[in-house]
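2024-03-11 09:14:02 DEBUG pipeline.ingest accepted 1 chain
2024-03-11 09:14:02 DEBUG pipeline.ingest length=214
2024-03-11 09:14:03 DEBUG pipeline.predict start
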Amino acid sequence: MSQHPNPDASFGSPASPHALSLPRRNMRDAARGPVSPPATAVNGLQAGQASELTQRYELLARLGVPTTASEDFDELARDMADKAGFLYGFVNLFLREQTFVGLHQPAADSGYVVVGRTMGRDHGWCPEVMARKKALPLHDVHASPRFSSNTVVDAVGIRSYFGAPLIHDSGTVLGTVCVIDPEKRPLSEARRLRDIVITAGAQVMDHIVRAPAR
C-alpha cells in the first residue's frame, strides 16, 4: 500500500511514533482458564449492556473459548486480510474492552501504525456492527459523514473498513471480524469484500463452537 498514515496525527508515543497508544499486552501469557466478567467490566454500563456482557462472558466460558490472543485466531485474521488485500485483520471479542484475540497487521518496521490487542468499546466501527447484527461494508469511510469521524480514522489513517458480527446460535453476539486499510476501495469491490468477512466470521464461529467445552 502506498499511503502511510501521518505520524503527527497518530496517538504514538515519542519512543515509537507509529505505535497507536492502545494497550499492547502480551496476551499469550495470560491465563486461559474459564472466564467470568470482572466487577469492573460492567461498571458504568447501562443495564442492557451489562446483561449482554455477562451473557457473553458466560457463553465463552461454557464453550471453553480463551479470551486472550490465540494463534488459531491470528491465522484466521491473517487469512481474511490476505484474501481481502487489506493491511489489518481482526477477530474481536467485545468484553470490557474490544479484545483482539486474532490480529494481523504490518511488521513493526513497515512504517505503518502498530496496534495493540485491546481498544475502547466505543472506538472504531465494530460497535456499529454489534448493534446492527449484520455486516458493515465501508469501501470509503469518508463517503458517509456518519462514519468518517472516528478515532481510528484519525489515529491510523484508515479509509476502508469491512466487518461482520460473530453471532452464536443462541443469539448472543460475541464480537466481530473485520479488515481495515489506509486506502479506499472501489465501490465495485464492496460486495466481494463484504462476502470475505462474512465467510471469515462463519469460520471463526465454527472454530468457537468446536472449542473443547469446559
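2024-03-11 09:14:41 DEBUG pipeline.report The helical segments are 39-42, 47-63, 71-84, 126-132, 145-148, 151-156, 190-209.
2024-03-11 09:14:41 DEBUG pipeline.predict end
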